[in-house]
Structures are given as C-alpha cells and as structure tokens.
Amino acid sequence: VYARVTNTGEPERFLQYYTDANGFMGWFEVSAVRQEPDGVVITFSNVTESKQAELNARTAADSLQSIMDSSPAAIM
Question: Which band of pLDDT confidence, cut at 50, 70 and 90, is reported for residue 13?
Fold first, then answer.
C-alpha cells in the first residue's frame, strides 16, 4: 500500500488488524498520503472498540438469522 501511494501519489485509507508478540491486538484505521518528493505520511486511529462492537452485532445478527432460517414456524 505504501509503495503504491508513493508511486501513484493517490492517498489511501484502509482498516488494518494488528497483533504483536506481547499479545496486543487491535483494529486501526490507517491513512497514507504521499509527502513530496518521496515520503509517505501515515496516520492511524485505534478503532478496536467500534470494530469489536460491529463484529459482535454481526455475530448476533447471523445467529438470529440462522434461528429464523431453521425455524419451521414464524417467531413473533
């Protein structure tokens, strides 16, 4: 990604999961912008809490959908 930003000059934003040898785990929103002539400025924000909430909501929705799909009668 960083080489592409350097080569094209087009900024990029992406979500990155990170873990290290010490057990730290987290989600980061990363932004990379070319800084003339051949540098890249990288900024990041820790979005672990909101990403985990999103994943939990998706898991709950998938579970509910599975129940609904396998239920022979409507659930009110």
Answer: very high
